[in-house]
Structure formats: C-alpha cells, structure tokens
Structure to design on (208 residues):
C-alpha cells in the first residue's frame, strides 16, 4: 500500500515512469493493487505502462514464478456480505459466487466509466476516488474477504477521510481479532452498510 501511495504521488507530479514502477511494486506485494491500474492509465502515459511489469519480471527471474507475490498476507477470511446473503437466499454456494462475480465485474466497469479522470471532468487528475471505489467493490462483492483487503484502505484515509471507512476499519479489526465471523447475516450487513451507502453515493450521485 505504501507503493500504491507513491504511485499516486508520482501521478500528481506526472512522473509517469516512476508512477508505473511504483505501481508494479504494489502489485508485486499484493495482486489486489492491479484493480487500481485503470485509474492511473491516461492517453499521455500509456507508453510508460511497461514499467509496471519491470518489478514482476525481475522478481520472477531471480526467485522463480512459484514464489510470485510471496509478500501476501495469509490470514483466514470470512464470507463477503453480498455473497453471504445470496448464499442464504439461493441455497447454493457456487451459484452465489457466480452472481457475485457478475455483479462485481459489472459495477467495476460502471465505476471505471464514471470515475476515470479522463472520462468525468469532476474527477480530473483525481485517481484516488476511483481507487477508493474499486476497493469498496472488492470488499462488498468478494465471496471471501481477507484482512489485507482492509489494510489496503488505511493509507487512503489520510488522503480522503471518510466516516464510513473510518468506522469500517476498526470494526473489521475487531472482526478478525475475535472468533466472531459466525455473525448472522443481518449483523454482517450492519457492519458493511456505511461502506455500501458511500459507494452507491459516489457511483450514482456525484455526476459531472
């Protein structure tokens, strides 16, 4: 996440090679970072995009592809909020996973179309809003949510303080700290409700 913050800083300074190199290091530390890449791509920096592959190439050549993403945190996850309620309604885990994947892909595409800095004048030179949005989509619609999904968000709170995220982060910490992932469905939704409302507001009401 520090590498991702560095890439955002280089974006602001328009140092494109360093931006993609930092983002490549972020992807190397955790593949989750790749979902933010569309918001960093612009017409005037695409020729530098290959720099994002440089850290992965060096690591694979030196350590082998089997050790790729060796820095990823390994923590037991829990059912995502949308997946949990769909599994309850449909009574089929695999069908619920399919619905979550379709919803996640569709909302991700809509978010890219609405929040991309070169598509919406309101977000001109502002990739942070898009990064916030896609991390929220990932947390809400992933069949399994892991601790590192929340860790990615913590540095962003310094850039965009948000009550919903600030409430979510400590509650998620308590969620993982104790043996409470057996919460009922209504409690899971109560936990994620502020984040859901925030993402819906960002996606549909902040128009250019």
């Amino acid at each position: 996440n520090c590498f991702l913050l560095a890439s955002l800083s280089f974006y602001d300074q328009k140092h494109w090679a360093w931006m993609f190199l930092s983002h490549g290091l972020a992807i190397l530390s955790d593949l989750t970072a790749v979902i933010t890449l569309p918001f960093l791509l612009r017409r005037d920096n695409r020729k530098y995009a290959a720099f994002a592959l440089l850290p992965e190439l060096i690591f694979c050549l030196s350590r082998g592809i089997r050790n790729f993403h060796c820095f990823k945190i390994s923590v037991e996850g829990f059912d995502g909020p949308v997946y949990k309620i769909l599994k309850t309604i449909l009574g089929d885990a695999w069908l619920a996973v399919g619905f979550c994947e379709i919803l996640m892909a569709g909302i991700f595409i809509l978010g890219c179309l609405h929040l991309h800095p070169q598509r919406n004048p309101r977000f001109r030179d502002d990739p942070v809003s898009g990064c916030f949005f896609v991390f929220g989509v990932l947390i809400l619609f992933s069949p399994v949510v892991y601790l590192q999904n929340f860790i990615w968000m913590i540095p962003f709170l310094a850039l965009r303080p948000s009550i919903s995220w600030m409430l979510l982060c400590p509650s998620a910490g308590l969620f993982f700290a104790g043996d409470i992932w057996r919460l009922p469905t209504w409690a899971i939704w109560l936990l994620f409700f502020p984040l859901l409302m925030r993402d819906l507001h960002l996606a549909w009401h902040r128009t250019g």
About this structure: The two ends are 29 Å apart (CA to CA).
